Amino acid sequence: MSAGTISEDEFEGSSDYDENDFEDDDEDESDTEFGQTGDMGFQDMITEKQRKKAYEVDFSVLPLADIMAAQTSAASHVSGILGVSLQQATALLRSFKWNKERLVERYMDHSQEILNQAGIVLDDVHTPVLKRPRGFVCMICFDDSSAGPALGLRCGHVFCQPCYEQYLTQKIVEEGECRRILCPESGCNTIVDEETIKKAVQPTVIAKYQQLQDRAYVADLDNLRWCPAPNCENAIDCRLPHSSFKTVVPTVLCACGYKFCFGCGLGDHQPAACGLVKMWQKKCADDSETANWISAHTKECGKCLSTIEKNGGCNHMTCRKCKYEFCWVCMGPWSEHGTSWYNCNRFEETSSTDARDQQAKSRASLERYLHYYNRFANHEHSAKLDRDLYTKTEKKMEEMQRTSDLSWIEVQFLKKAVDVLTSCRMTLRWTYAFAFYLARNNMTDLFEDNQRDLEVAVEALSELLEKPIEREKIAELRQQVLDKTVYVGSRREVVLEDTAKGLAEGRWEFFVDFSK
Amino acid sequence: MALPKRIIKETERLMADPAPGISATPHDDNLRYFDVIIAGPNQSPFEGGVFKLELFLPEDYPMAPPKVRFMTKIYHPNIDKLGRICLDILKDKWSPALQIRTVLLSVQALLSSPNPDDPLANDVAQHWKENENAAIQTAQEWTRKYATA
């Protein structure tokens, strides 16, 4: 087995690449301000380079707490430079989409303008009104009773507390607004500051407000993206410019275990680039292939144009609808066939040849698409079966622990094998979308060789895993599975490495342009 | 559900002290639903016309804006053929401090100053921009044809 060339260590390192990555990065990030386009230390760059494969990208995982801390740390930095309060600095940063450099630079020249924009008044002598003025009528509820608290910003527009609360709650909970909540008065541009909001609304609404702000923070920064896995609250920090996503497939692995594409947020789709993925999904989703099928498998009645599929029988067709009788081969009226019934001799006539050529073309294009789609879909399906296999595997592992003298650690190879198998199937699946758009040339042939090698290896491993476990053969099986797992992993790496390099070098020739 | 005090008071004031050229009457069976009549403003292509509108106060009014729609056909770049109105305060510029009265006054003002640069009815807006006089003439014709009692 060629797996002998690759040591276990190397393989282990490669499949777990991200875990080490993000832990290291995390520590780096806490010193630098990750909200900005900070750069890594030179030392780190070198070690990163050595370890990194062509298809891997640098990224780090940020738990929610870090996201909140990063906002505070950026704000305290700015508040120190500009001499404003922490809260004012946060508001300023928000209005500048957390671009600290630009904020500080612009603030030096146009401080007043920028303060107005963010709705901040420095020496705030007009502290918010909290008491109900004499003879006050709230212009929202028209309540003119004299009791109860009221609220107004320095703009002097006062409304009663319940109305204010309802207004803010509506803005936050219903409209999901957190960036610019304005005074309820029509046309007033005074921004309701965070402190006032927190005083006026219920704790659940404050929590929602905080959540919206964290969301806005991640949305504002190009280098951050939420992990799309359900209930995962982590964000991924990846510093690659978005323009590079045409040639790089930025696959990241969240601490929750979900692997996805940083560029588009879909699940891992290596080796296909985001643009290609989008095009492929659209192609699979829309009706064009249905139309193709119809044109490849059906003909229209020469008289009433009903669509007819011939599912058996001879060439003498009778339209169900209009009773027109014609020949399926040449589409001419059956009456003209004279005595040569059931044996069409008009095959070479030009009008019918044209029709057949057209049909042959669309049939060929359909067959090509179906070839790739079936394999794409098959791996998707197999991946689902793998998940079932995984549960079975767990049972197997328990069984093995009971029936042999292997320890728990030693039976872990099955889980590992299933993990590798699943990720290989995901990769294989996208290689078919990738290949569909490749132009036919030598590079494509090489790619398909690599693809085939991976596919053969994957199926071999899959077969091995489904074998019943026999007590006396456990040690042998373990060895086989380990070997195969390593081999499969290495084949996957070959495919990914090659495609990623090719993308970076512009070596692949696609017959469509998806770089837009 | 009981009608909020705000709506009751607003309705009382609207009835007692109507804005010039505007009347709004709530339905007996639904006090949130108003029949509105706006007179075409003087010196506008809609002068002499009487325009019927419907106005509905949704559940979360005044936190959400009222829904207003023209029932009378009108040739105006910011009002489409279904009578929907393109007016900022009915959308993102809505403030709970605005009222039925202010909304209707804004609609009336919109009749005096059509804004073809922010159109809802594209064909009308284009007509308005390319040949204002001809567009105004069409608006006058429509007013005579559809908006005179």
From TrEMBL, chain A:
Enzyme class: transferase
Keyword Cytoplasm: no
Region (Disordered): 1-42
SMART domains: IBR, RING
Pfam families attached to this UniProt entry: Ariadne, IBR, IBR_1, UBA_ARI1
UniProt-listed Enzyme Commission number(s): 2.3.2.31
Membrane-traversing stretches: none
Every RING-type domain range: 134-348, 138-184
The protein, known as: RBR-type E3 ubiquitin transferase
Organism expressing this protein natively: Entomortierella parvispora
UniProtKB/TrEMBL annotation, chain B:
Domain UBC core: 2-148
InterPro entries in alphabetical order: UBC, UBQ-conjugating_AS, UBQ-conjugating_enzyme/RWD
Gene3D superfamilies assigned: Ubiquitin Conjugating Enzyme
EC number(s) given by UniProt: 2.3.2.23
Signal peptide (residue range): none
Domain of life: Eukaryota
Top EC class for this record: transferase
GO molecular function annotations of the record: ATP binding; ubiquitin conjugating enzyme activity
Record key words, sorted: ATP-binding, Nucleotide-binding, Transferase, Ubl conjugation pathway
Active site: residue positions: C86
Pfam families in the record: UQ_con
UniProt family annotation: Belongs to the ubiquitin-conjugating enzyme family.
PANTHER family membership: UBIQUITIN-CONJUGATING ENZYME E2
The name this protein goes by in its record: E2 ubiquitin-conjugating enzyme
Lineage, broadest ranks: Eukaryota, Fungi, Fungi incertae sedis, Mucoromycota, Mortierellomycotina
